Amino acid sequence: MAETRTMTINMGPQHPATHGVLRLLLELDGEIITKVVPHIGYLHRGVEKLSESMTYPQALTLTDRLDYTSALSNNLAYCLAVEKLLDLKIPKRAQYLRVLLAELQRLAAHLLWVATHALDMGAMTVLFYAFRERETILGMLEQVTGARLTPSFVRIGGLAKDIPDGFAAEVRAFVEDFPRRIDEYETLLTDNIIWKKRTQNIAPMSADEAVNYGVTGPVLRACGVNYDVRKAYPYSGYDEFDFEIPLGERGDVYDRYVVRLKEMRQSNRIIDQAINNLPTGPILADSAFAVPPDKEAVGKDIAALIRHFKIAQEGFETPRGEVYASIESSKGELGFYVVSDGSNKPFRMRIRPPSFINLGALPKMIEGQMVADVVAAIGSIDIVLGEIDR
After folding, report:
1. In whole angstroms, what is the distance from residue 85 CA to residue 336 CA?
2. Exposed, middle or buried: residue 23 (CB in 10 Å: 0-12, 13-18, 19+)?
3. Which of 7, 14, 120, 216 has the highest Cβ tally under 10 A?
4. Do 348 and 323 meet the contact criterion of CB atoms below 8 Å apart?
5. Domain 47-388 - what CATH class?
6. Number of other residues whose CB lies within 10 A of the CB of residue 16
7. Residues of the chain with confidence (pLDDT) below 70
8. At what angle do helices 125-145 and 167-189 cross, to 10 degrees?
9. Domain boundary assignment for the chain
10. What's the confidence (pLDDT) of residue 43?
11. Contact at 8 Å (CB) between 349 and 337?
């Protein structure tokens, strides 16, 4: 009787293609992967527990550091949960600006993904192309928020401030030019025979498998499952925007790539509608209890100064209860579950990070595949260890 021997090797946590401090324990039969065990926790910072010792406005700054490629989206998901707890009504202009910023952030995240994913598999040129547009987007976000990576700009009740003069014109110019840029990425990759051989029929998942593993975002939609939080449970006025949900068929690495590129085109459509239909009006909810006054009022009115100081120092108390709010981030469904005991701090806060859930499906994707396909599979999930090891 022939004897079968397997070899166990480590991939990571320092491997550049694991996109962070992820360690995979691979059991190999020659070049074929027979078993995969992901090991996480190397980056753990205790964000959920830290938030329980901070006031609600202070805890907002922690959300930027989760998926640090989508900080504004993280801000939005957290703010939606707290606003649900407070039953705050957000002005229409603030909702449209939130959508605008969230979709710009989605584009920036997807551009970083396609750049690094292609680089992982040897296609270096795409990185220079994608980073060109990413820099433009980060420049626009910096113009609005004052920061490129962790702005903490979406606030409980609205936004930190309104968009500056000239920003709308920059957005319109970008929106008009961006489809041509996506065409360039497609020219480099979509019909490239090497790219197809490295991605088609690699790490596939069926629709049933994806649903059973709880994956969301482009990884789920690549399997043909039509689920997007923006459509299923519209927030911030997404039901007023006209856009489509791209779907794949095979659920493999190639379909995940195609779905994300199509998503960028749809995000561009949403941004175009948001900037051209931007309502007038305030960008903060009318709540003296939870929303700080305008900075101009703080400089002129002692009552406004006192109110600003009180909210900044002590936060605000929330009604007792528990809420869950989620958004469609660049990785999938990002949700915040907040339990309030009536104090000015969350009694408990738990986060549903899409990267963490999607990573759980990695063994199913790559068992039976080749060692060289591990890098392609990890890249196709688009994980960020900041929200996995929250």
Report:
1. 12
2. middle
3. 216
4. no
5. mainly alpha
6. 11
7. 1-3
8. 160
9. 7-39, 47-388
10. 87
11. yes
